[in-house]
Design goal:
The structure holds two protein chains of two kinds.
Chain A (H helix, E strand, L loop, with lengths): L14 E3 L6 E3 L19 H21 L3 E5 L2 E5 L1 H10 L3 H31 L5 H15 L3 H13 L6 E5 L1 H19 L3 H11 L7 H7 L1
Antiparallel strand pairs in A: 1-2, 3-4, 3-5
Helix pairs in contact in A: 1-3, 1-6, 2-3, 3-4, 3-6, 3-7, 4-6, 5-6
Chain B lengths: L17 H4 L5 H20 E9 L11 E4 L2 E11 L6 E8 L11 E5 L2 E3 L2 E3 L2 H5 L2 E5 L10 E3 L13 E8 L10 E4 L2 E11 L6 E8 L10 E5 L4 E5 L2 E5 L3 H6 L2 E5 L11 E6 L2 H10 L6 E7 L11 E4 L2 E15 L5 E11 L11 H14 L2 E7 L7 E7 L17 E2 L9 H14 L2 H20 L5 H36 L2 H18 L6 H41 L4 H23 L1 H21 L4 H55 L2 H5 L2
The chains are: A mainly alpha, B alpha/beta.
Chain lengths: 222, 686
C-alpha cells in the first residue's frame, strides 16, 4: 500500500488488528482480548476459500442461465423463459429499458463479480496488473453490489406469490431462480472470504521485493 | 526487539494438518459436484426409452411441451420432432416414463387428442387451453419393447377399460354410417361406430365398430344390424304415431341389432357386417347375405310370371325357407318336341330353415327333396300380396300329381317340377264387386229419401203441428180418467165371481152335469139338440175371436195407407188440422164412452147373466126344461154378445182411434227427435 512517508502499518509494528472490533493486539495473540474473536494477521486459507466459493457460485450460475427463470401459465398457454431469453423477448417487444436493467442485474453484475473476484485472487497470487488502490475499490464495489443481485430472485418470488390466479394465469419460479440465488449467495461468500489485506501485502511486496512471499512465515517473523 | 526468547523452530509444515493447509470450504464445491453427479446419474438411470411415433398430422404437438398420457396421466414427454424420409410423416419422439415402458408393446396405439365437437358431445375441450396431447392405449400385460409406432389419425373406438369386439360395418343402400354412432341393444348402448370410409370397391361406406365387452357375446354370425336413426311416422286406426328410439339417435343416428337365427357362430374380430336401413330389410337379409350352406334349385314355369322378382320368398307350407335368386328365360323342348320359351327361376334354399343344417346340409336337403318330389312335392307360383300383385314360389305337396323326378342336369342346379299356379286374379274380382255396386239404384233411393225428408220437414215446420202436443195431452188426461171406471167394473166382476162361488155353483153344476149325463143316457131324443148348442157356442166363440183383430188390422192398414197417401199428397197444411179434428173426435168418443157407454152395458149384461145362472140353478132338476132354457139363455147370451159386438163397434172405433193416435204420437215423437238431433234440418230442409 502506498503509505505516506513516515507511516508504517500495524503489521510492520508487530501488531495484529481485530477484524471484528478493530482493536490492535500484539502479534501472536490468539484471541482478541476485547471481543474474543480469533486473531490472524493474514488468513492463510483466504484464497482457497475464495476459489472454492467462486467455483460453486460459477457452477450454479451455469444452470441459472440454462433453465427457465419464470414459468408463466396463462389461459392460452404456458411460457418459460431463461434470463437472457426473457430479456431478448422484452427487447423485441420494445421494452428496451427493462431488458437492459435485467441484463445488467442478472448478467453483467454477476459476470463482473466473477471476473473481478478471479482477477483479485489471481493478482494476489501472481502479482497485480493494476494499482492496489484500484483493486481495493473494485473489491469494495464487489462486496457492496453483491447483495443487490438478489433483486432478481426477489422479483421472481414476489411475482410468483402474487400471480396465482388459478386457471387464468400462474407464475411459478423456474429452476434457474434457485440456481441464481445460490450463485449470488456463493459469490457473496467468495467476496467475504477474500482477505482484502492481501491486496496491501502484494502492494508492499511490489515495493519491497525482498519481503518473503510466504505469509505464514512472514507472520511468524512479524 | 528486546525479546530474549529464542525463536521457536520454524519448521512445522509437516505437522500442519491438512485442515490447516486446505480450507474446509472446499467441501461445498465437492458436495455440489457430488449432487450434480448424483442427479445426473439418477435422471439418466430413471429415464425410460425413447419411442418414435409416426403421425400423418401432428398439428399442435410441440417438442418439450406435449405430453404423452395414459388414462389422462402424464407418462411421457415429446422430446423432438422430425420428418420421416420423404417427408411423408411426422416422427414424434417421446421419452416414456420408465414405469410404463414395459407395457408399451406392439399393441400400443397412439393418437393426438384434439378438441372435437360432434353430435355426441364435446370432447377434448381441455386441450383448447392446455394444448393437444398424445393419448396412448395399451393393455395391462408387459410385452417386448417396441420403439417404432404408427400413430392413429383419430381416436380409436376402445377406451381404457372398455375393450370389446371389433367389427367392420358396411352400409347397405339407404343406410348411413356416422362417426360415433351408438350401437344400441334394447335401448342400451353397447358399442360405437368409428369413422366411416368409402369401401375399397367404392360401392358403399365402411366403418370400424366396437361392441364393448361383455355385450360382444350378443353378436354371432346370424346377427343383423340395422339403422334406427331418424323417425317414422305412421297412420293407423289408433291415430298417428311418431316413433323414434331416442333423441340422440334422432340427431346422430343409431344402429341396433338382433340375432335372427339361432346357431350362429361367434364372429372373428374384424368380421364384416352389413347395416341395413330397416329392420324388415335386415330380417329379410338373413337369406340373401349368407350364401354358405344354401341350396340352389331351378324351376321352369310356363306362362306369365309378372309379379315375381328376385328376392321373392320361397315357402314350404307357409314357412319361408329361401328366396328367388334370379329370373331368366330359356328355350326348352317339351315332351311333344315343341320348343317354347320357358321361364327359369333360380331359388336359393336354406336347408337350415327346415332343420337340415350341419356339415352336409345342402346334400342332405337334396336327398330330402328328391324323396319328397317323388311323393308329389311341386313348385308353384302363388300370390304373395293381393294389393301389389307380387308373387312368391310355394313348394306344396300335390296329392295326385303325375309322377316326376327332381331333374339334375350336370353343371346346373336341380330342376323342381311344377304344378298349376295359384294366382288370385284380384283385378277381376274387384271389377265384379264394383259392377255390382254400380248396379244398385243408389240415385233413386237417394232421391226418394230426400223427397221424404223434405215432406216430413214441411210437415214439422207447419204451425198446426204445434197444436198437436196440447191435444195429445188433453186426450191423455181423458184416457187417464178411464182406469178408475175400469177398476169399478173389475170390482163388480169380482163381486159376481164371489157370488157365483158363494152359491156353490160349481158343485151344483157338477151334480147338474151328472144328472144331465143320466138324462142324456135316458133320453135319446134330446141328444140332437146338443150338437146344435155346441155349434152355436162355437159360432159365438168364433165371432168373439174374429171381432177385433182382423177388422182392427184392416182398419189400421187402411189408416196407415191413408196416412201414407196423405204424406205423399203433400197436402200438408190440411193434415195437422185434420189430425186436430181427429183428436177432438177421439176425445169426444172417449167422453161418450165414459158417460154412458160400454161399461154399464157390460155390467148389465153380466148382471143378467148372473140372474140367468141363478135361474139355471133354480131349474136344476128339470132337465128338458133346463136344456130348453139353457138354449134360450145361450141364444139370448149370443144375442147379447152379438149386440155387444154391434155396440162394441164403438169400443172398436175407440181402440182404432187410440191406435191411430198412438201412431200419430209416435210419428210426432220421431219427428221431434229428428229435429232435436239435427235442428239445422228445419232450416236447410234436409
Amino acid at each position: 500500500m502506498d503509505l505516506p512517508e513516515g507511516l508504517t502499518t500495524a503489521r510492520a509494528r508487530g501488531l495484529v488488528g481485530c477484524t471484528r472490533c478493530t482493536r490492535p493486539s500484539p502479534a501472536g495473540t490468539a484471541r482478541c482480548p476485547r471481543c474474543g474473536s480469533p486473531l490472524q494477521s493474514r488468513d492463510p486459507l483466504s484464497l482457497q476459500k475464495v476459489w472454492a466459493w467462486w467455483l460453486v457460485g460459477f457452477g450454479c450460475y451455469i444452470p441459472a442461465n440454462l433453465y427457465p427463470m419464470l414459468e408463466t401459465r396463462t389461459l392460452v398457454g404456458s411460457q418459460s423463459d431463461t434470463i437472457v431469453g426473457g430479456a431478448i423477448d422484452l427487447a423485441s417487444h420494445g421494452n428496451l429499458g427493462v431488458a437492459i436493467i435485467i441484463l445488467i442485474a442478472s448478467v453483467l453484475i454477476p459476470v463482473g463479480k466473477f471476473v473481478i473476484l478471479a482477477g483479485l485472487a489471481i493478482g494476489v497470487r501472481h502479482g497485480p496488473q493494476i494499482s492496489d488502490h484500484r483493486r481495493h475499490i473494485l473489491y469494495e464495489v464487489v462486496e457492496y453490489i453483491g447483495r443487490w443481485s438478489m433483486i432478481d430472485v426477489f422479483v421472481v418470488a414476489i411475482l410468483s406469490s402474487l400471480v396465482q390466479l388459478q386457471a387464468l394465469a400462474t407464475i411459478t419460479p423456474g429452476w434457474a431462480s434457485l440456481f441464481f440465488a445460490l450463485s449470488v449467495i456463493f459469490t457473496m461468500l467468495a467476496a467475504q472470504s477474500f482477505d482484502s489485506r492481501l491486496i496491501w501485502d502484494t502492494a508492499a511486496d511490489a515495493k519491497k521485493p525482498v519481503a518473503p512471499q510466504n505469509e505464514p512465515s512472514r507472520e511468524r517473523t512479524a | 526487539m528486546t525479546d530474549t526468547t529464542p525463536p521457536e523452530p520454524t519448521v512445522k509444515p509437516a505437522r500442519r494438518a491438512l485442515r490447516d493447509r486446505i480450507s474446509i470450504v472446499w467441501v461445498v464445491p465437492l458436495l455440489a459436484l457430488a449432487a450434480v453427479i448424483a442427479i445426473a446419474w439418477q435422471s439418466y438411470a430413471d429415464r425410460g426409452p425413447l419411442i418414435e411415433i409416426a403421425f400423418d398430422n401432428a398439428s399442435g404437438v410441440r417438442a418439450g411441451n406435449t405430453e404423452l398420457r395414459f388414462r389422462d396421466v402424464r407418462v411421457g414427454l415429446v422430446e423432438e420432432m422430425s420428418f420421416s424420409d420423404g417427408l411423408g410423416k411426422v416422427l414424434v419422439r417421446v421419452r416414456l416414463d420408465k414405469s410404463v415402458a414395459p407395457y408399451v408393446d406392439d399393441d400400443a396405439r397412439f393418437w393426438v387428442v384434439r378438441p372435437q365437437v360432434t353430435t355426441q358431445g364435446v370432447s377434448g375441450l381441455g386441450t383448447v387451453l392446455s394444448g393437444v396431447y398424445i393419448e396412448g392405449l395399451w393393455d395391462d400385460r408387459p410385452g417386448e419393447t417396441v420403439t417404432r409406432f404408427d400413430g392413429l389419425s383419430d381416436a380409436p373406438l376402445e377406451r381404457v377399460g372398455k375393450s370389446g369386439l371389433r367389427l367392420t360395418m358396411r352400409a347397405s343402400d339407404g343406410a348411413a354410417l356416422t362417426e360415433n354412432t351408438p350401437i344400441l341393444y334394447r335401448g342400451v348402448e353397447v358399442g360405437r361406430v368409428g369413422k366411416p370410409v368409402i369401401s375399397e370397391d367404392g360401392t358403399t361406406s365402411e366403418a370400424e365398430a366396437v361392441i364393448f365387452a361383455p355385450h360382444d357375446r350378443l353378436i354371432d354370425s346370424a346377427t343383423r344390424f340395422w339403422d334406427t336413426s331418424g323417425f317414422s311416422l305412421s297412420f293407423g286406426a289408433g291415430g298417428a304415431a311418431v316413433n323414434f328410439s331416442s333423441i340422440a339417435s334422432l340427431v346422430s343416428g343409431g344402429i341396433t341389432f338382433d340375432t335372427m337365427l339361432s346357431g350362429g357362430t361367434p364372429p372373428e374380430p374384424g368380421a364384416q357386417f352389413t347395416v341395413y336401413s330397416e329392420e324388415s330389410e335386415a330380417r329379410a337379409s338373413i337369406f340373401s347375405s349368407d350364401t354358405t350352406g344354401t341350396l340352389t334349385l331351378s324351376v321352369l314355369f310356363d306362362g306369365n310370371i309378372a309379379g315375381l322378382s328376385a328376392g321373392a320368398p320361397v315357402e314350404l307350407n307357409g314357412l319361408r325357407i329361401g328366396q328367388v335368386e334370379a329370373l331368366g328365360g330359356r328355350v326348352d323342348e317339351d315332351a311333344s318336341g315343341e320348343s317354347a320359351v320357358r321361364l327359369a327361376v333360380t331359388l336359393a334354399i336354406r336347408p337350415g330353415r327346415i332343420g337340415l343344417d350341419g356339415a352336409d346340409g345342402p346334400e342332405a336337403a337334396l336327398d330330402f327333396l328328391r324323396a319328397r318330389v317323388r311323393e308329389g312335392l311341386r313348385a308353384r307360383l302363388a300370390t304373395a300380396s293381393i294389393l301389389t300383385g307380387g308373387l312368391k314360389v310355394e313348394l306344396i305337396e300335390v296329392a295326385d300329381a303325375p309322377a316326376a323326378e327332381l331333374v339334375e342336369p350336370t353343371g346346373a342346379p336341380p330342376i323342381l317340377p311344377t304344378t298349376d299356379n295359384e294366382i288370385a286374379d284380384v283385378q277381376a274380382t274387384a271389377e265384379g264387386v264394383f259392377e255390382r255396386i254400380n248396379a244398385l239404384p243408389v240415385e233413386e233411393v237417394m232421391d226418394e229419401a230426400i223427397t221424404l225428408m223434405r215432406n216430413a220437414n214441411i210437415l214439422v215446420a207447419g204451425d198446426d203441428t204445434r197444436a198437436i202436443p196440447g191435444n195429445v195431452n188433453s186426450l191423455l188426461s181423458d184416457a187417464r180418467a178411464l182406469p178408475p171406471r175400469l177398476d169399478a167394473t173389475l170390482a163388480q166382476l169380482e163381486t159376481l165371481v164371489a157370488q157365483i162361488n158363494e152359491d156353490a155353483l160349481t158343485t151344483r153344476l157338477a151334480s147338474l152335469l151328472d144328472e144331465a149325463a143320466e138324462a142324456a143316457r135316458g133320453v135319446s131324443t134330446a141328444s140332437d139338440g146338443v150338437p146344435d148348442l155346441v155349434a152355436r157356442l162355437e159360432g159365438i166363440a168364433a165371432n168373439a175371436e174374429k171381432v177385433d183383430l182382423d177388422v182392427l188390422a184392416a182398419d189400421l192398414a187402411a189408416f196407415l195407407e191413408s196416412t201414407g197417401t196423405l204424406l205423399a199428397q203433400g197436402d200438408t197444411r190440411a193434415l195437422p188440422r185434420q189430425l186436430n179434428a181427429t183428436l177432438a173426435e177421439v176425445s169426444l168418443v172417449l167422453e161418450q164412452l165414459r158417460d154412458g157407454g160400454v161399461v154399464e152395458n157390460t155390467v148389465a149384461t153380466l148382471d143378467s147373466a148372473r140372474s140367468a145362472a141363478d135361474t139355471f140353478a133354480a131349474a136344476g132338476g128339470d132337465l128338458p126344461g133346463l136344456i130348453a132354457e139353457a138354449r134360450a139363455v145361450l141364444a139370448r147370451a149370443g144375442t147379447t154378445l152379438e149386440g155387444y159386438q154391434a155396440s162394441g163397434g164403438m169400443g172398436r172405433d175407440a181402440r182404432t182411434a187410440l191406435r191411430e193416435v198412438e201412431a200419430a204420437a209416435k210419428a210426432v215423437a220421431s219427428l221431434a227427435r229428428a229435429i232435436e238431433r239435427n235442428p239445422n234440418s228445419l232450416i236447410r230442409g234436409r
